[in-house]
Design brief:
308 residues; 10 helices; 2 strands
């Protein structure tokens, strides 16, 4: 007689096997060989710097900005040098290229934040760094520093070109240049004019770019944010052109005076209202700084309230 075979146990699926978790009684505690460190703002800054320097939009927008500022500035200086007399402040020719070049900085400021929302990369960014305020602060700091330094290089080169090509000319008979800009019958650029046309103008453009970044963080849409910033820059002057009645004269003057383009022009001693060299643009620069800080505060608040 054969011995009966004992019943076989049912196979156990691997997922049904009890798992030994770290710290469980009788289980081994796993120790990761990778050191665990708490993240801080420096890590976010390094991440944002890697992003902004490795995307092609940064290279293209900054290259176009340099081309506009240096190219138009040089062409302007060449045209003014043919008269033999100085009709404008010595460094004022740098304004015309920068008026167009600032659009590149504004566009880049928008793309720094909206491109991540458009591609969905913002989800990865926020997963890697859940502190949303830290992410936005890092973007703002990296972009502002980059835009200021690049614009400062462009404006400084442009100012040197203007000084080399137009220096030594006598003032025109009909010019209204300030007395301290004329030495020994020749038009010069004072130290204040150098500061305004380089550092002041670069700060102004960088703040406009930072304002664009804040608007991009609020709207989270590239086309909408760029259109909004173009309206902020151009609309005050366009509206003022059609306000020709006497009843709207005060409003027209305020729109021109506080327009972003007039703030930039005043730093080059070419205000849209008043005489050449009659004022300084630093007051309008601080006003722009206040508006930018307010927009950034709104962007920080909305970033914390909304989902990505």
């Amino acid at each position: 007689m054969s011995t009966p075979t004992p019943p076989q146990a049912a196979p156990v699926h691997p997922q049904q096997v009890p798992q030994q978790w770290p710290g469980a009684q009788g289980g081994a505690v796993y120790t990761s060989p990778i050191p665990i460190r708490s993240t801080h703002l420096g890590h976010a800054l390094a991440s944002e710097w890697t992003k902004i320097r490795t995307v092609r939009s940064t290279m293209w927008t900054l290259s176009v900005m340099f081309l506009l500022v240096i190219g138009i500035g040089t062409a302007t200086a060449a045209g003014l040098s043919g008269t033999g007399y100085a009709e404008l402040p010595l460094l004022s020719g740098g304004l015309f290229g920068l008026m167009l070049g600032q659009i590149c900085i504004v566009t880049l400021g928008v793309l720094v934040i909206t491109s991540e929302y458009g591609t969905g990369m913002i989800r990865t960014t926020m997963t890697a760094c859940p502190a949303r305020g830290r992410v936005l602060a890092a973007k703002a700091m990296v972009f502002f520093t980059l835009s200021f330094v690049m614009t400062l290089i462009a404006t400084t080169l442009n100012a040197l070109i203007q000084s080399a090509m137009l220096g030594g000319q006598p003032p025109s008979e009909f010019s209204s240049l300030p007395a301290d800009s004329i030495v020994n019958g020749e038009v010069i650029a004072t130290s204040a004019e150098w500061l305004d046309a380089t550092v002041g103008a670069s700060l102004y453009v960088a703040l406009l770019g930072l304002l664009a970044l804040a608007v991009g963080a609020i709207l989270r849409h590239s086309a909408g944010a760029i259109t909004t910033m173009l309206g902020v820059i151009l609309l005050p002057l366009l509206l003022a052109l059609f306000m020709q009645t006497e009843s709207l004269r005060t409003l027209q003057e305020k729109l021109v005076e506080y327009s972003p383009l007039n703030g930039l022009a005043t730093l080059f001693q070419l205000p849209f209202m008043g005489d050449e060299g009659s004022g300084t643009g630093w007051g309008l620069l601080w006003l722009l700084a206040g508006v930018t800080v307010a927009a950034l505060a709104g962007a920080f608040a909305l970033t914390h309230q909304r989902d990505v």
